[in-house]
């Protein structure tokens, strides 16, 4: 079976292949640092060999719990934020029919998300929608104390208990959280919810292959065994036994670091398939939280093409030349749709008649690549044979491994995120959270 592959040919006009190849010893050292656990953040390396360590029993447990939710719920609310949200959403949206939620007949519970914002209207409208629904909740939080998620869960727990009664609520509320600490753990233990543990050594943004991602994905009806299988393959392909030039994670990490040194401060992740929108979002957190620190780091941004060619396309073609692109290119769509012929040809599109829509899309992709390279934008392509569970598993592990290597090449700790605490501290001070009295006084004086 083919694997995903990385093509860096269209970087050659900006940084030479020899320069990238010269990264081999450095990349090897970074990979050894990861393998030996001797680098910064080494207590968060649980993701490195996670795919190969997931047991059949664990997957069976997840599937059994998913089945309980599928059997008892019309809607399942997945509550979480950041790494406790984006991976599940990325995979579910990539695999779902784009119009599933509008169909009268569902093949399982409708999955909706909460806990990733503090929008009053969003939460109001969600609680309204749930009013006549049999719904369950997967409450996901590693720390168990994240305000956005905890606030949504407080509302959802109450509504679920009010509508279904405490006993039934217990059956359809599942917690994915720390083994011992945090309010989500305390609540789950007190209420007797089924729980799954997020391992201590797996950080949020690297946790999609733990129950954080696997449980919601299974509830949505997708094959988590295949997802893990794909990740396992990439664990080997991107592992230390693979020579540098054949290791896509090594080459990607080296190339983006060289481009960064060369003044390309912004990486744009691109797709030509709207189902990958949340994959962009997941990737942004992975690279943004991992590398953006100590006053450095490539700024990870993302676009959906060809949609955004009609908005951001101008900037990308002619704006400041500080960007490079990484395109996720899906080789084969799941369905076939041909452009029909039209006797009158009023729209002038008969030159496309008989062609598949995907052929048009592929020419948009190729035309864009050439135009952007001509415009001074280096371009890498991650070629993905098909959009299915297996290849999503490959994509996930590929990006995770490359991120670990890339962070070490950059010289940062890719596994912490101290910067995200600043807004929380201010918010708690402004809201007079107990324990923040001094900060409250100080912040009030600034207003
Ligand atoms: O799972 P938790 O602890 O609720 O955290 C959610 C997200 O919030 C962050 O900690 C940032 O505040 C992310 O790193 C994490 O993925």
From TrEMBL:
It catalyses: alpha-D-glucose 6-phosphate = beta-D-fructose 6-phosphate. Pathway: Carbohydrate biosynthesis; gluconeogenesis; Carbohydrate degradation; glycolysis; D-glyceraldehyde 3-phosphate and glycerone phosphate from D-glucose: step 2/4. Pfam families: PGI (PF00342). It is found in: Cytoplasm. InterPro entries: G6P_Isomerase (IPR001672), Phosphoglucose_isomerase_CS (IPR018189), SIS_dom_sf (IPR046348), SIS_PGI_1 (IPR035476), SIS_PGI_2 (IPR035482). The keyword Cytoplasm applies. GO terms for cellular component: cytosol. One of its GO terms (biological process) is gluconeogenesis. It is an enzyme of class 5 (isomerase). Keywords: Cytoplasm, Gluconeogenesis, Glycolysis, Isomerase. One of its GO terms (molecular function) is monosaccharide binding. The active site is at residues 289, 424. PROSITE patterns: P_GLUCOSE_ISOMERASE_1, P_GLUCOSE_ISOMERASE_2, P_GLUCOSE_ISOMERASE_3. It comes from the Bacteria. Its EC number is 5.3.1.9. Belongs to the GPI family. HAMAP family: G6P_isomerase (MF_00473). Catalyzes the reversible isomerization of glucose-6-phosphate to fructose-6-phosphate. This is Glucose-6-phosphate isomerase.
